[in-house]
Design a protein that fits this description.
Length: 153
Amino acid sequence: MKILAVCLGNICRSPLAEGILKSKLPESFIIDSAGTIALHEGEHPDKRAISTAAKYGLDISKQRSRPILPKDFVEFDVIYCMDLSVFETVISMAKTEAQKSKISLFLKEAEIPVNNFEVFDPYWSEMDGFEEVYQLLSDASEKIKTKLLTSNS
């Protein structure tokens, strides 16, 4: 199964989600991340995201920001969006109903109804914002792991 995590710039939330999902799911799962804007294309994740992930033994420092591409809608089985704005942008890029059916809010898929199923963007916050996002993504990833492994067995 191929999973794509998407946020705005692909430097905070989706790199954390990618790292967490990779740590929780078997290696047979292919996980990547992208952003809806190319502003940070080629850049490493935000230093605060790297630091927060490292605190939990995850190295996301080698990831590079990239925009979501038309081919992603074909190559990935599921596309998890971090907030409603990202979700709406990604849905608008999908060409077919089949592609649209792959797209969901990350927290909605995990059945975590906080903040209207949105993972807030910690970019403008301090380290505690990144910690909060990490915990939320980790909890959601655990639920998604259970869901995916149950449905794929």
